[in-house]
Amino acid sequence: PTWVVAAVCLVIVSVSLAAERFLHYLGKALKHKQQKTLYSALQRLKEGKIQEYCCVNLSIGIIACLINRTIQLRLLLITLS
């Protein structure tokens, strides 16, 4: 069903945004406490891993939408037959 695909996409996007916000505030806290080594490690992590994670999430969302459209088209064709 369409609503299930939408719910899964919503969960994936929500978790991604929450993780990004958490890392943002963690970076602010590290910078404020002058923990330069941990802050630079966090920046390197964000630059590499988070970008890969976001690309994977975006790909999953696009694939889920394509699957949803395919199912809708098949149901429409079955209904019209």
Automatic annotation (TrEMBL):
Q: Name one GO cellular component term.
A: membrane
Origin: domain of life:
Eukaryota
Q: Which UniProt keywords apply?
A: Membrane, Pathogenesis-related protein, Plant defense, Signal, Transmembrane, Transmembrane helix
Where is it localised?
Membrane
One of the Pfam families matching this protein, by short name:
Mlo
Q: What is the species listed in this Swiss-Prot or TrEMBL entry?
A: Aegilops tauschii subsp. strangulata
Q: Which family does it belong to?
A: Belongs to the MLO family.
Q: Under which name does UniProt file this protein? A: MLO-like protein
User: What Gene Ontology biological process does one annotation of this record name?
Assistant: defense response
Q: Which first-to-last residue range defines the signal peptide?
A: 1-18
What is the recorded membrane topology of this protein? Multi-pass membrane protein
